[in-house]
Amino acid sequence: MATDRPCGPNILITGTPGTGKSTLAEELAQRASLNYINIGDLAKEGNLYEGFDPQYNCPIIDEDRVLDELEDQMGQGGNVIDYHGCEFFPERWFDIVFVLRTDNPILYTRLESRGYNGKKLEDNIQCEIFQTILEEARDSYKTEIVHELASNTPDDMEDNLDKILSWIEQWKNTH
Ligand SMILES: Nc1ncnc2c1ncn2[C@@H]1O[C@H](COP(=O)(O)OP(=O)(O)OP(=O)(O)O)[C@@H](O)[C@H]1O
Ligand SMILES: [Mg+2]
């Protein structure tokens, strides 16, 4: 079913932490003149938390409040959402979903240089090995709108931007 989105398509950029979501999504939003929304930052700014996870030493996002906060804006369209999960969003929100994938040695180095170590580092690497986010995306959205993108090198990022920008042009021509 085609949805009416006056401000353009809604795009989800997801993937394991460190795969390059924010780097890609920010650049994409700028080049395509779409709104960039980083769910982690949104939760932080609005204090949309419902507790604290002692194991990972981080606050737990209040998903219902995040959804309430975004509902109107998502209805208008024209948003690039950046988050390392995808199953709590309503399926109807997104026109296309991109899952970034990074080869393990590269991801390991990126996360290590961010200061991740021990269980947090291992769990994120496992998440990528088991393609947890890709499966979550395939379970949550129509498989034909879910696309994997390699995110290892700056060239990959340029290719990904080109692909997504041309998809946006096509979307605009048909809506
Ligand atoms: N295509 C790429 N090629 C090389 N390096 C990249 C690429 N994309 C991102 N990076 C680098 O990898 C690191 C992680 O990128 P970024 O912060 O965008 O990841 P993220 O998926 O948003 O992580 P998180 O989920 O923790 O927010 C950064 O240092 C970034 O510069
Ligand atoms: Mg990020």
Automatic annotation (TrEMBL):
Annotated Gene Ontology cellular component terms: cytoplasm; nucleus
Cell compartments where the protein resides: Cytoplasm; Nucleus
Entry keywords, A to Z: ATP-binding, Cytoplasm, Kinase, Nucleotide-binding, Nucleus, Ribosome biogenesis, rRNA processing, Transferase
Single annotated GO MF: AMP kinase activity
InterPro entries, alphabetized: Adenyl_kinase_AK6, P-loop_NTPase
First-tier enzyme category under EC: transferase
Annotated region (NMPbind), positions in chain: 38-61
Pfam families: AAA_18
Residue segments, region LID: 113-123
GO annotation (BP), single: rRNA processing
Top-level lineage group: Eukaryota
Family of this protein: Belongs to the adenylate kinase family. AK6 subfamily.
Subunit structure: Monomer and homodimer. Interacts with small ribosomal subunit protein uS11. Not a structural component of 43S pre-ribosomes, but transiently interacts with them by binding to uS11.
Function: Broad-specificity nucleoside monophosphate (NMP) kinase that catalyzes the reversible transfer of the terminal phosphate group between nucleoside triphosphates and monophosphates. Has also ATPase activity. Involved in the late cytoplasmic maturation steps of the 40S ribosomal particles, specifically 18S rRNA maturation. While NMP activity is not required for ribosome maturation, ATPase activity is. Associates transiently with small ribosomal subunit protein uS11. ATP hydrolysis breaks the interaction with uS11.
Official protein name in the record: Adenylate kinase isoenzyme 6 homolog
Species assigned in the record: Mytilus galloprovincialis (Mediterranean mussel)
